Automatic annotation (TrEMBL):
The keyword Transmembrane applies. The keyword Membrane applies. The chain crosses the membrane at residues 28-51, 63-79, 91-110, 116-141. This is Uncharacterized protein. The lineage of its organism: Bacteria, Bacillati, Bacillota, Bacilli, Bacillales. Keywords: Membrane, Transmembrane, Transmembrane helix.
């Protein structure tokens, strides 16, 4: 149960799971990095604008040079806290986290270009939707590799 708890706190804010795991320096470094990327990438402003439906302005406000770091930091913090709390003991358990980070990063790259029903998906929505194929690919590879390992 503790592994799920730290995973959920890490989803809330990278570094919180590490603090619960008593990894104070690692947790504080992750929180500091989250705030640095958040502020320099204008992430909170982009989130607000996106949720209010002003996607074009959100794209204009986004600092992609900084936002590109966020998916890897976010999913690494989740994986690290989960692993340190005793979760993810099965082989290749990290793959869904890694591929989610990859896919969300690619979603961030293309977030100012891809439309759905004539509306730009933007900096928040396309990366969020990109978690799903990342999880699918990661879980599929985990399953394939685990079968090869056991056969």
């Amino acid at each position: 149960m503790k592994a799920v708890e730290v995973l959920l706190w890490s989803i809330a804010l990278p570094g919180f799971g590490q603090l619960l795991n008593k990894m104070y320096i690692k947790g504080l470094v992750l929180i500091l990095l989250e705030f640095l990327i958040n502020v320099l990438g204008n992430f909170n402003e982009v989130i607000i604008l996106s949720f209010q439906g002003n996607v074009e302005m959100a794209v204009e406000q986004a600092n992609y040079q900084w936002l590109m770091f966020y998916p890897c930091l976010y999913f690494f913090a989740m994986w690290d806290a989960y692993k340190d709390a005793g979760g993810g003991k099965e082989p290749y358990a990290f793959l869904p986290f890694v591929f989610s980070a990859y896919f969300v990063t690619v979603g961030t790259i293309y977030s100012s270009k891809i439309s759905l029903f004539g509306q730009l998906l933007g900096v928040i929505w396309l990366p969020m939707l990109s978690v799903l194929p990342g999880l699918f690919v990661g879980l599929l590879l985990k399953r394939i590799l685990t079968k090869k390992l056991t056969s």
